Amino acid sequence: MKWIPFLTFSAVLLLLASCAPLQPVVQEPTPSSGNSAVIALLGTAHNQSSSGEFEAAGASLERALRIEPRNPHLWQELARIRFNQGQYREAENMAAKSNTLAAGDRYLRAENWRIIGQARTRLADYQGAQAAFERAEKEK
Amino acid sequence: MAKKRSTSKKKIFFLFVLIGLVIGTVTVAYLDSVVRDRFEGKRWKLPARVYARPLDIYPGRKLTPSQMIAELALLGYRETPQPREPGSFHLRPRALELVTRPFRFGDGLEESRSLKIMFADGRVQALQNNSTQSPLQLVRIEPALIGGIYPGKNEDRVLVKLDEVPQHVMDALIAVEDRRFYSHHGLDPRGIARAIFATASGKSVQGGSTLTQQLVKNFFLTPERTIRRKLTEMVMALLVELHYSKDEILETYINEVYLGQDGNRAIHGFGLASSYYFDKPLTYLGLSETALLVGMLKGPSYYSPRNKPQRALQRRNLVLDLMEKEGFITEQQLGAAKKSPLGVIDRPPRGTSPYPAFLTLVHRQLQRDYRDEDLRSEGLQVFTTLDPQVQLSAEHALSNRLELIEKSRKKPAGSLQGAVLVTSAQNAEVQAVVGDRDPRYKGFNRALDARRPIGSLIKPVVYLTALQDRKKYTLATKLDDSPFVYRQAGAEDWEPGNYDHEFHEQVLLRDGLIHSYNVSTARLGLDVGVSKVMVNLRRLGVERALPEFAASLLGANALSPQEVTQVYQTLASGGFRTPLRAIREVLTADGEPLQRYPLNVEQVIDPASLYLLTVAMQDVVREGTASSLEHYLPAGLDIAGKTGTTDDFRDSWFAGISGDRLAVVWIGRDDNEPTGLTGASGAMTVWGKMMASLNPEPLILPEPDDIQRVYIDKATGLRSAQGCSGAIELPFISGTAPEEAVPCGRGSVKKSFRSWFERIFGQ
Q1: What number is the ipTM of this complex?
Q2: Under a CB-based contact definition with an 8 Å cutoff, are residues B38 and B232 in contact?
Q3: What residue ranges of chain B have pLDDT lower than 50?
Q4: Three-state secondary structure along B532-588?
Q5: A45: in domain
Q6: Residue A68 is part of a domain; what is its CATH number?
Q7: How far is A102 from chain B (nearest CA, A)?
Q8: Is B456 a catalytic residue?
Q9: How confident is the prediction for chain B on average, in pLDDT?
Q10: Which of A41, A66, A97 sits opposite B601 (nearest CB)?
């Protein structure tokens, strides 16, 4: 029964980790897109998102996704939006989608696994969250 | 006595006056209720307006000048040497100048802008603000109006709001029909005087009516020309003016007036007339077209532009002259408009929307969230995903190919039917729906409602289900394709045969799919389990319960093209299911956001198994049953696809995925008779022709991490090496590739030491 306090501790840690709203990562090793229209829409989405207009931000990202449907950065941003809207199941799926398109971009994938971990925590799937955070560490 | 008599005379006189007043008041009150009833009944129902997707323009976008011109034509933009007015453009070599119209989207107003678009190599090379010459990243053109959802059962009404009506319509009406419309109170004394004079001199009983009086006249069912009717109309006109504003009266007039006859169908209102004569929404009518319609008011059949073009032209030019005289248009405008042809289309369109099949899909999706009554009356604005360019390509490909197939195979003309659906591969937005070879036909919508056996289109689901059992199946697993009888108690024996009437002994799993072998697929499916395959089919997107039997494995179940599209959508988007979406958002009549339909995805298939399947589906096109697609599209596109043919060639299917789109095509006959077509000789040719005109993106699959590539001997499925004869490179989920190897070179049966060792000691 020694592991019970440990589990409780990690569950608390997980909860703490997922309390803050998801912010876009500041420094990114790869540019999000080579298309200036997509960059512009991403900027709009960031602004809308930081003033709490998540639905509008989602619409801007969807518009960007029509231009670059296979851009994993856009799917990841959409995952953050869904998370901030409290739609954790959707956030998890969006981040998984980003992962399937992000072959080779370990940085992006690590971030996706963190989003998945935080979403699962909110959904009270602590084991799943733990596994996701471990994947995030492995990607690094 | 005399005095008494005079008092009683007075009394009788007053009594008559009183009775007269009472009768008068009652009559007016009655007329008032009639007026209000009729007026409100005509007015307060606004159909939902349905828009196509707006065109986003940005540097790098695939777009040719001719595609851009086609888009502008849909929006009724006019070519002028110096575009200044919103809604005008000028095409130069490799560049296009245009002034957009302002438009209110869900996320705000897109202002009118003066733009210059430069083209190169089939793409937008640069985009700039034409007034400041500064570069622009992204501009959105207003979406084309593609139809409405109309009140009542009679959909032959295209109600318009005043703000959609071009100013020219109002100007022309006022110039021609009622110059003092904005200053009178329903009656125009000068006009009446003129009419009385004309009547007295025996010329005519008509004339002198204000727009208000003409509108009131329409409230009656019978045309009657008596003094009594005329007086009633005058009272009613005064009452209408008392209750309603000039704009309300004008709007109702524009929606109500009679403008022609199509058999037993009366053409009422400028909205429907615009569609009937010009096949475009009223908003997009130009000056000369507007003048023609207003001119016809005097006598729609006498001035019919289809039957009496010369007479109609003279009348139109008279209207234009009057507009110039009243100062509504300039001399230059007059000159230009007079020179333009009538512009009336030869045959009236069959319905009011050019895309009835797509509109039905939109209507059904809306009905999940809205009461039908609200859709038909609240003036909602519906923004859809329809891409008119894709839609036109799909329509042309289907009707052209069916005609050619009928000719070359000596089939009765018109005997074949078909359906096409096109979606964006990752977002599941429906870009085109064709439900009949005559795309304007608003009848049975085969894309949504024709349920047909899907034949081999089921096979990817069977193979996917097998590949998900990683320990047991890989692309190189050997399958038995020798003669096979499936016996089940209480059911007839099932003896599937191959399309080529041969058996192939041992084949690799990938070959079963690539060459669409029925026998090996049936064995594989039974081994995996019919119910497991059917569970996957539901997981991929079929929402109905389907009967399960062994023949389900070869596509005996009937699905609609829409259902098939939903299933393949999940395959196209990497195992993420997204319900097909035809609507992006709904705004109220005033432009307030009401509802968005956001993009969401759900992962239902693991990426690695799906990757293996998709690679095999690319090989279907590269070397299998769909290899003749190369007659339509270059091989480098790596299209993934599957053909489907049902018993006796009754149904011809093709589903295919490019880098940007998924499209499903069905061809068959409404009476379910054989067509003689396979999936490849029928549906696939439509697919190829359509995609060729859409310049598709190549399908580049992102490789999941746990995939390794191994050289395999094509004949034995054992490990080989690069450069060996018969070796092909195949993807495997890590650790599942065969270890037993064949020596490099043909015909050798020696096995490697390791596999010998394993066989000795048993695994």
Answers
A1: 0.85
A2: no
A3: 153-155, 205-206, 747-756, 759, 762-763
A4: HHHHHHHHHCCCCCCCCCHHHHHCCCEECHHHHHHHHHHHHCCCEECCCECEEEEEC
A5: yes
A6: 1.25.40.10
A7: 8
A8: yes
A9: 89
A10: A97
